[in-house]
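Aim 2, interim progress. The first record below pairs a target sequence with its structure tokens.
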Amino acid sequence: MHILVLGAGAYVCGRGGEGFGTILPSLAECYRDGLIDRVTVAATTSRSIRNLQEKLTGLNDILGTRLSIQGFPQAGDDSKAFRIALAAGDAVDAAIVVTPDPLHFEHAAELIEAGIHCLVVKPLTPTMAESLRLVKLAEDHTVYGAVEFHKRWDEANLHLKSIFQSGRLGLPLYAVVEYSQKKQVPTELFRAWSARTNIFQYLGVHYVDILYFVTGARPVRSMAVGQKRWLIRQGIDTWDAIQATIEWEDVSAGRFHTVIAVNWIDPDSSTAMSDQTLSFVGTAGRYDSDQKRRGVRVTTDEDGPREVNPYFSEILPAPDGHSQFRGYGYRSVRQFVEDAAAVRAGSATPADFEGRRPTFRDALVSTAVIDAVNRSLASGGEWIDVPAFNRQSVSA
């Protein structure tokens, strides 16, 4: 298969840091295993492509792979370089969209209309109207669309789902999530577009999806408040922190509430890029998950103390000694590649993955909550009803 990647930033290749990101090494492993044979990357500047090629050289050396990548634009700047990639000659089978939130709809829609299967990093889109249009487009063109909700592959969350479904937690009462990232994320890594998103739709959406994935409940209404104190003084007009309450309804258990408190102004000296905890309380038990402190702490003269999560995306030695990229971030990307290959080969249809993957249709739940939270923020914290859309008919 020929894979097109839109974007060449931190999550693709580790731009701005010492690592290699998640998408690039995942594709290198897929290439090693014969799942793909060509990769094209479209960025907005040739400088980003040069950086990606440098990263790829180092990654190939470490993994022992021979992946090569064609990049666009090859000179200068071009915000529509992905169109050049599409017209370059070799047919693209699947694409991974790793661009800023406000561009997801535009990019995914154009790819779908070209008949290309799509994996979109979260969120699918910022608005319900855009997500509904993408679902309809994908169905009209028989294209497989999924969202890169990699936390569904994290064993900590799968363990919660197993315990919840067994009934050992009883009926759900409430859940509390705290999730934050360093100041360098909005001020350095995403400086060019952080004012066009917010920390809830960029980051908190992960746990909206996990709560839905675990319980199968429907969001009924939401309210949110936030604070603008520090980022606005840095010239970035967006929320420092947001606290959102979501009311859910389960057909057999009734209603329960979750609070998701997020920020992206943690000190850059924090021991990890992300600090995240989840507590889920039911009538018969509770589940507490600290997804930052996973029991691995490294302290060096160069970096000081660091809390390491080797389970997300990490280059590690295999038993035979060669280096390999592993983790739930990798498994999420590989699953999409395998699924897209199955659709391409005719052994599966996009409809076969409904209820089994974070498809575009499945992502309507998280987008509906984002939409309600953003409207609540704009209204000063009013409760906003989440539309009782029918996921089967995709009507709102």
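The second target in this work package is listed in the same format:
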Amino acid sequence: MAKVIIKGDFNEAVRRFSHITMETKKAAKKHEYYLRPGLRKIEKSKEALKTNARARKRIAKRTATI
């Protein structure tokens, strides 16, 4: 098992470690399987539509309560 020596703030070290692990997971997911460039573009646009729909829903909920 590896040892880690933390110099300085513990919370800052935890934050940096979680950022590194998040990047590692993102890279692993990206290379999980191969998509042709055209299909990758389609998948990316589908994901963008989902994200934008969630954001619009969240904004509509906020403005409805005001």
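The helical segments are 10-30, 37-65. This observation will shape the mutagenesis plan for the next reporting period.
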